[in-house]
Amino acid sequence: MKPHQTGRVLYSAEQIEARIPQLVEEIEARLKGREFVMIGVLRGSFMFMADLLRAVYHAGLHPQIDFISLSSYGAGTVSSGTVQLTRDTDLELHGRTVLLVDDILDSGRTLAFARSLFLERGAAEVLSCVLLDKTVPRAVELEADFSAFPVDDRFVVGYGLDYNNRYRELPWIAELVF
Ligand code: IMP
Ligand code: MG
């Protein structure tokens, strides 16, 4: 098979591995012992979610876990502007503290959609944690409570992030060169 043609590595596997426990410390400090539910946004968050969960375990935290599938991108690199719910969560969220986990915060629409959905269902609080925070103007008013790394306005892949469902398996985050 042809090797992946990706551009510059922005964050290496080692950098990601080192950053995740720090992120968990920030989360722990903010939650102050409160019980919480971790909800990953599929599919982009799966690798981050798995590593984050191992660090959460080592920090002595034991959240309930669920996933939601949301889609807005289709096959391109520009958000369609509408978010679709394609797989819902199973957990009862009433009165719960939710930690939403996504791969990247870009326009903000995906996280804003999930946040209002969970608040409508009675969640007491919805915090968000993203691997990457794209430093671009948001289409909606939303900032992540926790983010591992900033990234400027470029299309990135790897460590769960895809382009047409490829490159998700890369252990690092690289720029995609078109
Ligand atoms: P938002 O709704 O515009 O904030 O976009 C969030 C979603 O768009 C993320 O969950 C990703 O799936 C996708 N996305 C945004 N930027 C990138 C990128 O650079 N690479 C891969 N996916 C991206
Ligand atoms: Mg996504």
Give the helix/strand layout.
Blueprint: E1 9-11, H1 13-31, E2 37-42, H2 46-58, E3 64-71, E4 84-87, E5 97-105, H3 109-120, E6 125-134, E7 146-151, E8 156-157, E9 173-175
Parallel strand pairs: 2-3, 2-5, 5-6, 6-7
Antiparallel strand pairs: 1-9, 3-4, 8-9
Distance between the termini: 19 Å
Mean pLDDT, nearest integer? 94
Quantity of strands, as a count:
9
Main-sheet strand order equals: 4-3-2-5-6-7
Largest sheet: 6 strands, mixed
Name every ligand kind in the structure: inosinic acid, magnesium ion
As a percent range, the share of helical residues equals: 10-25%
Order of helices and strands: EHEHEEEHEEEE
- Number of distinct helices: 3
Radius of gyration: 16 Å
What overall geometry do the principal axes of the alpha carbons give? Answer: globular
What amount of the residues lies in strands?
25-35%
Structural class: alpha/beta
Outline the low-pLDDT stretches. none
Can you offer a commentary on this structure?
There is one protein chain. This protein has 178 residues and is of the alpha/beta class. The chain has three helices and nine strands. The protein has helices at residues 13-31, 46-58, 109-120; strands spanning 9-11, 37-42, 64-71, 84-87, 97-105, 125-134, 146-151, 156-157, 173-175. Helix 1 (13-31) crosses helix 2 (46-58). The longest helix is centred in the first third of the chain and has 19 residues, at 13-31. The radius of gyration is 16 Å and the shape is globular. It starts with 8 loop residues before the first strand and ends with a strand. The mean pLDDT is 94. Inosinic acid binds next to strand 5, helix 3 and strand 8.
